[in-house]
Design goal:
The chain has 261 residues and is an alpha+beta fold. The chain has seven helices and 13 strands.
Length: 261
């Protein structure tokens, strides 16, 4: 990576070989090498991306320095609240696995090349954000196959880490700091992680860095829907705020007030 890449516009894609006809072939040929040449790993900050061999079951890239794995999805349109992924059962099974890759989303312009890149760390993946799709029709080649959508719109904002905005690479130190800020989630079991993520979303929805416990209680009705078997939502909220405080995500200011760090 050139020294000034973090300050100037990033280069575009290389021209694909004439033998490639499908858009998916071209996107794969262009996007993975582009990431290798131009991006750093958001987990460690090193420019050490390597490509897995073709037909790797899950991941596309890995960091040669810290070994974090990434699944890369690229498209010309902006990513919405859902991202289409593979088999539903496979995705549900791999969420709790250490081998589950992080998700990298690359939006490109067909003429200008990559425009935005966002990474969602794997510790933000919980069963609630994996949506089952309808089985393929009996007339389809893979009749009955059930895919899934990843509901990235339900991931807290802090879990959608931008690497590139409008063709410009974001500062390396800031990206790595954002990544490390939530690494404590990897130590949590899936159910506990789900609660922490929902409380993090409730805190974000308040819209200001300093807030009171009562502000978080405003999410009580929504949390009853998300966790219908829990009849003690307020104590659970307080418990999660304490975990977030102990992990350095929040700061307790006294008198029932908190501040985002």
């Amino acid at each position: 990576m050139a020294e000034n890449d973090e300050f100037g516009p990033l280069p575009g894609f290389e021209e694909p070989p004439a033998r490639f006809e499908s858009a998916s072939q071209i996107a794969r040929f262009q996007s993975e090498p582009w990431v290798q040449r131009n991006l750093f790993c958001p987990a460690c900050g090193e420019s050490a991306f390597e490509r897995f061999p073709n037909n790797q079951p899950v991941a596309d890239l890995y960091c040669g320095n810290c070994a974090e794995q990434f699944e890369l999805k690229s498209q010309a349109s902006r990513f919405g609240a859902k991202v289409v992924d593979g088999a539903f059962r496979t995705m549900q099974a791999r969420i709790g696995s250490k081998e589950n890759p992080n998700l990298m989303l690359l939006r490109y312009d067909r003429a200008a090349g990559p425009q935005d890149v966002t990474v969602i760390p794997k510790h933000f993946f919980v069963p609630a954000i994996i949506e089952e799709r309808k089985p393929l029709a009996p007339t389809a080649r893979r009749a009955g196959w059930v895919g899934c959508n990843i509901l990235i719109g339900q991931v807290p904002g802090v879990g959608r880490i931008p690497l590139v905005r409008e063709r410009r690479l974001l500062p390396r130190d800031a990206v790595v700091e954002t990544w490390r800020r939530t690494l404590f989630l990897r130590e949590q079991k899936l159910e506990a992680r789900g609660w922490l993520l929902e409380v993090m979303k409730a805190v974000e929805a308040i819209g200001r860095p300093e807030f009171a416990l009562a502000d978080v209680y405003d999410a009580e009705d929504r949390l009853h829907v998300v966790f219908p078997n829990n009849q003690n939502v307020r104590p659970k909220i307080r418990q999660q705020l304490q975990v977030l405080r102990d992990r350095g995500f929040l700061e307790f200011s006294g008198r029932g007030t908190y501040r985002l760090r």
